[in-house]
Q: What sequence folds into this?
């Protein structure tokens, strides 16, 4: 079974994502960037679903860049989870994959639709 690490500070969103993903994937949950790194020390997931805004407004961006620039983690697929695109009028679809600004493999906007989430996750894991 493929392993996913979800890193998001919103307990309600983690609960919903757990419901949606745990029947299809081995899911681990972290509530912060720091907790996510601690989980990565123990096992390497196939995919990280990473919230943009946690401890600070750019924690997820920062972690995404750090992971993609680290030889140990650079091959892990990353799905950015955000509502920033709507608030700040950023076109994540055009920016996803940019190695300097947003090296994520894909993104999904909040509120998350379960079927869209499953489709994006499946696409990234195949």
A:
């Amino acid at each position: 079974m493929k392993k996913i690490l979800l890193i998001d500070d919103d307990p309600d969103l983690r609960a919903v994502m757990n419901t949606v993903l745990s029947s299809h994937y081995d899911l681990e949950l972290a509530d912060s960037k720091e907790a996510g790194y601690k989980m990565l020390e123990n096992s390497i997931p196939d995919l990280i679903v990473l919230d943009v805004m946690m401890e600070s407004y750019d924690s997820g961006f920062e972690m995404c860049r750090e992971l993609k620039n680290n030889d140990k983690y650079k091959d892990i697929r990353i799905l950015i989870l955000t509502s920033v695109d709507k608030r700040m009028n950023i076109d994540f679809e055009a920016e996803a994959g940019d190695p300097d600004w947003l090296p994520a493999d894909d993104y999904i906007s909040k509120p998350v639709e379960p079927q869209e989430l499953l489709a994006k996750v499946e696409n990234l894991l195949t």
Q: What stands out?
A: The chain has six helices and five strands. The beta strands are 3-7, 26-30, 47-51, 77-82, 106-109. Residues 114-125 form the longest helix (12 residues).
